[in-house]
Amino acid sequence: ELFIGDIYGMTKIIRMNQLMKQLGLSRSSIYRLRAQGDFVPAIRLGIRSVGYSEEAIIAWLKKREAKTSNK
Q1: Beta bridge mates, 51
Q2: 30 with 42: CB under 8 angstroms?
Q3: What are 13's strand-pairing partners?
Q4: DSSP string of the chain, one letter each residue
């Protein structure tokens, strides 16, 4: 699958439904993490739509994994 961002160096944008499946978190859990400031910022795509940078999500996961393994 060719993603146009691969050509132009753009990051892939993940929408909420895909994000929930990939992370195994509920919508309310993601919103809670955002409210606590412990999640990647949403990217406004339109009036009623947001997405999340795949690169930012990967970095967030690595950061959480590092915190877990340091305990």
Answers
A1: 43
A2: no
A3: 53
A4: ---HHHHHTPPPEEPHHHHHHHHT--HHHHHHHHHTT-SPPPEE-SSS-EEEEHHHHHHHHHHHHHHHHT-
One digit per residue, the tens of pLDDT, for the chain of length 71 reads: 455 555 566 678 999 999 999 999 999 999 999 999 999 999 888 889 899 999 999 999 999 988 887 76
Among residues 47, 58, 43, 55, the alpha carbon closest in space to that of 3 is found at 55
- Per-residue pLDDT at 8: 60
- Written as six digits, the tokens of 66 are 């590092």
Q: In what order do the strands lie in the sheet with 13-14?
A: 13-14, 50-53, 43-44
